Known about the structure:
By secondary structure, the chain is an alpha/beta fold. The chain has helices at residues 15-25, 47-53, 57-68, 85-97, 120-129, 146-149, 160-171; strands at 2-8, 31-35, 71-76, 106-112, 136-143, 150-151, 156-157. The protein has seven helices and seven strands; from the N terminus they run E-H-E-H-H-E-H-E-H-E-H-E-E-H. The strands form two sheets. Strands 2-1-3-4-5 form a five-stranded parallel sheet, with helices on both faces. Helix 3 (57-68) packs across helix 4 (85-97). The two termini are 13 Å apart.
Amino acid sequence: MKVLAFAASNSRNSINQQLAQHAASLIPGAQVETLDINDYEMPIFSEDREKELGQPQLAQDFYNKLGQADAIIIGFAEHNGHYSAAFKNLFDWTSRVERGLYQNKPLVFLATSPGPGGAKTVLSAAVASAPHFAGNVTASLSVPSFYDNFDTDTGTLRNEELAQQLQAAVATLPVPVVA
């Protein structure tokens, strides 16, 4: 199974990237590709820019990358209760390539933050909007107080209850039948 894991953040030290990578590592036998959305940086989306520039190749490349995966794990960073500007821009451009940008892929949505809120607001928004973009969210999980619950040296959750919840979340991803 090909799993694409990434953070909806352009931070080079993204805690959501660490969480997404850890989640993907829990899938036995998965071929995991970790994505950095900084590789898909484009001008700020607007209809005027789209008329002027057309659709950037990077938006098509991101759409194709999503399409190559059997499952997708996204760790959502929360910026003032919303998506990060970097992800929202990538999302906006890619949705112009194809509104159903998630391509009916099974998705596990995660979110974490340094504080006790665990980025629940953005996670809730992402889960609610996914069906409108051909997203099949099989599970979601908010991890509060990242640095208290995640061991950055080992790249694993140290909180056993959260670790079990994360394992259950990734277990919702269908394992493809090999012919």
